[in-house]
Give the backbone structure.
Amino acid sequence: MPVLDCIGCNDLRVMDNNMGSMRTVLCDLDGVVWLAREPIPGSSDAVARLRASGRRVVFVTNNSAARVEEQIAALLGVGIRADGDIVSSSTAAALLIVPGERVLVAGGPGIVQAVESRGGVAVINDGTVDGGPFDAVMVGLHRDFDYARLAAAASALHGGARLIGTNSDSTYPTPRGLEPGGGSIVAAVASAGEQIPTFAGKPHQPMAAAIAALIGDDFDAATTVMVGDRPETDGLMAERLGCAFALVRTGVTQPGQVVDVDLPVTADLANLAAVATAILD
């Protein structure tokens, strides 16, 4: 199993000299472009440089909380256009329901939007829901999660609903350090509801399907790179897609941190700006 130490991460460490052939960049948001929507230095310029070269940049995020228009506005606020170039775990999770299904949403407005766009009936879990039955309980990151909401979600699962987790990330990078992620909440609901969740976001198949749907016939794994800060999420997503993986050290994986990975890493770099340099120079 290869070990990546990236001491200091000030120099480019490109393990494959094929980076210049990349035409599509799948870019994680949290820990790559920003931390809690505070831009990481050089990230906006990196996206601009890549796009100016004719390459496409698509943002692939496991954060399910925000609506699409909110994500677009937030990215525009740091100088990045994102219209038509965002895939989130809520979008992927909605692929796991069929129109007309009734879904108890234990998550943010991004999940509600995705469920309704899919033709499902979204019922927000406020901890007092007792009217069923539900076809599914969909769980993602939300900061008002409490015992009452846990009890309501568990009740729906015991009533026959299936459990869908938007993502399995146990932590979430912020400028203050790591905080509990959506996967931690899913784990609590799964335990109380005595059910194994089906996950949708990176690195799972529904996210791969959502990426393919957005990019369409232009998708070519041989000329695509997934950029992310978490090998077990972004790296495995790259492996599932059959594309290159560039690990950056601005989020969950920190500079100097030793990372054991059992998957090919095309480049282990300091940040998104370094990825852009590796592709363009």
In short: The chain has nine helices and 18 strands. The first helix runs from residue 43 to 52. The longest strand covers residues 56-61.
